[in-house]
Amino acid sequence: MDFEFRQQPAYTLVKVTLESGDSIQAEPGAMVSMSDNVAIATSKSNDGILSSAKSILGGESLVANTFTAEDGQGEVTLAPPTPGDVHHHEIDGDTLYAVDGSYLASSPEVQIEAEFGGLKSMLSGVGVTPLALKGSGHVFVEAFGGLETIELAEGEHYTIDNDHVVAWEGTTDFDARRIGGLKSTLLSGEGIVMDFTGPGTVWYQTRGMDAFTSAIAADIASGGRDDNDDGIGVEDLF
Fold this sequence. Notes:
The chain has 238 residues and is mainly β.
């Protein structure tokens, strides 16, 4: 399997070239286009991948689509649902963790499980449940906005807002916690953060979906304009 990224970094498209008999699995809705000799099968993904109760908690789909090239070389293009970048990571007997919704696609040999984010996370009521991508093969994870990389040395600590975390290597310890009490959480605009301890690499996105949707909702609620704006607001349409 070969691949290349196009339209990076804002509207990344992954072009995957499959040799005859090769396959790639992807989240439903990820496929943009494919050649006519590529067969698509939708199932509960590879004997339980993404279909367990744990995976439901992890935020991923119950099913996955598998694309297989038949009678020669085939092509599939994949893309995230939001504007942003895609990161490729190849695992070889190790583990890559990914947060809810950041999984885009992978080789069929990659096993996908959901793991709880530590006892502390559960006790604090955070309940972070990352996906653990294990085995050997290609993995593609998506980012909303740009993609940043943090290389942590042994024992080095780093904190990232939960809404911005994308993925991290299995060598990196992690946990999740709430910032302050309810009052400080509401006033600061922050809620849950994830703490990472090296060694290992962490990837995070420059935009957060929760913050983005909150901004859109607030704009719609206000009619999309202020009192001095002569433009047309939502209330003017009815």
